[in-house]
Amino acid sequence: MNLLYKSTRDAQHTVTASEAILKGLAPDGGLFVPVSMPKLDVTMEQLKDMSYQETAYAVMKQFLTDFTEEELKHCIACAYDSKFDTEVIAPLVKVGDTYHLELFHGATIAFKDMALSILPHLLTTSAKKNHVTHEIVILTATSGDTGKAALAGFADVPGTRIIVFYPKNGVSRVQELQMVTQKGANTSVVAIHGNFDNAQTGVKALFEDQELEQELMEKGFQFSSANSINIGRLVPQVVYYVYAYAKLLKNEEIAPGEEINVTVPTGNFGNILAAYYAKQMGVPIAKLICASNENKVLFDFFRTGTYDKNREFVLTSSPSMDILISSNLERLIYTIAGADAEKDQELMDALKAEGRYDITPEMKEKLSDFAGGYATEEETMAAIRDTYRSTGYVMDPHTAVAAHVCRAYRKDSGDQRKQLIASTASPYKFVKSVMTAIDEKYGSMEEFALIDELEKASGTPVPHAIEEIRSAQILHTRECDADKMKDTVKEMLAI
């Protein structure tokens, strides 16, 4: 059966998976969602003995039905290879009484690698399938990790260019260096004067600008996205939740059919939405616990049914979650509205006009799969320190937010199910925050000196991604105001 996709804001018009990947964002500004949620056609008993690559095929073939077996397996083989520093791709590590799914063993040591190592292959395959002759311009906003992972994935990929916008002073020093030292003749990086929400809103506006689209076409370009608004980013993320459950089963940590809870540090809502999709596919997940930092717009939404971005924007030690507009939440809103595109459009219009919306009581009832929690900066640092002292395991601040929320949820609810935590970044990416949390004496040390201290403390070698930026040349220095993003793109593409 060919699975089609439709926009969250238009129930009538459908596209194939490859068309949805190519477009990134629907023309009406909505996000592409599958017309129906596919189910796994293999059992957990079969999955538990599969490699990551085999699991990826079992999951992704259900979503990307217009790809041939050969095309999809080629994309998977190109993505999940020696770029990862561990053969298993996504190791499961028992830390105290929880299980951490380590998603940071790829080229840029953050979970975005899990999807962005395959997206360039899915995109170029989609372009061939749809006889696209234009050069594809990947336009992306980043709060820190997507940018570098997308740049690394698309660098020198024929027929593509990539432009990444990030908030100046809104990412860690390591994150910034990873981006501004990126090689590749087709790569561009721009620091905007503003926060991530300004960058993301600006990128979405460029996608929706029909006049600009026409100008691009005339010059032989078309936009696509590497953000998690692209279904080609979201589908590969479903894989690791299926894989994790199967491996818990294989390791006899859970009984067949036993439900687990999953806690995900959440900013743009893509990673936890992927866990929700895994549950819809048939993975026995009970609660999806949405962990926020002090920008707790999602925590407040799950508690009250009101999404309100009209609040102070807080810069935290977990910058990839410093987000007030969680783009992927729209896919969940559409689902709980009973696939009502008009209702979704109404709520998104309210968000754009007033910065907030209220869901109906009937919609709120359908959120019972989710629980929300948040961690203050002090609680995040305490989670890093306490976990290190009790287990020797070192977490980055995003994972620490999830660990704190997971523990608080367990205590408050009395829910004793096994807990899986999505561990989303290497501690090496946020070395200053991590080492200062472990011991305040590190607060005065320079960032790169701390890397060697972290190696001693954690017993894990410095990743190649960190070693290579120690002496790398800065190649990207462009900056612009948030309202000048369109002019900047046109200048870079000589339009």
CATH fold-level topology of the domain at 92-110 and 232-459: Rossmann fold
Mean pLDDT: 95
- Strands of the biggest beta sheet: in what spatial order? 4-5-15-10-11-14
Helical fraction equals: 40-55%
Structural class: alpha/beta
What would your notes on this structure say?
- The chain has 495 residues and is an alpha/beta fold.
- The protein has a domain of 247 residues: Rossmann fold, CATH 3.40.50.
- The protein contains 22 helices and 16 strands.
- The strands form 4 sheets. Strands 4-5-15-10-11-14 form a 6-stranded mixed beta sheet, sandwiched between helices.
- A hairpin with a 2-residue loop joins β4 and β5.
- α3 packs across α4.
- The mean pLDDT is 95.
Write a brief structural summary:
With 495 residues, the chain is α/β, with parallel strands linked by helices. The chain contains 22 helices and 16 strands.
How is the topology of this model organized?
Elements: E1 5-7, E2 10-15, H1 17-23, E3 32-34, H2 44-47, H3 52-63, H4 69-79, E4 92-95, E5 98-102, H5 113-116, H6 119-129, E6 135-141, H7 145-154, E7 160-167, H8 173-180, E8 187-193, H9 196-208, H10 210-218, E9 221-224, H11 231-250, E10 260-265, H12 270-281, E11 285-292, H13 297-304, E12 306-308, H14 329-336, H15 341-354, E13 356-358, H16 361-365, E14 370-374, H17 377-391, H18 397-413, E15 419-423, H19 431-438, H20 447-458, H21 464-470, E16 478-481, H22 485-492
Helix pairs in contact: 1-6, 3-4, 3-11, 4-6, 11-12, 17-18, 17-19, 19-20
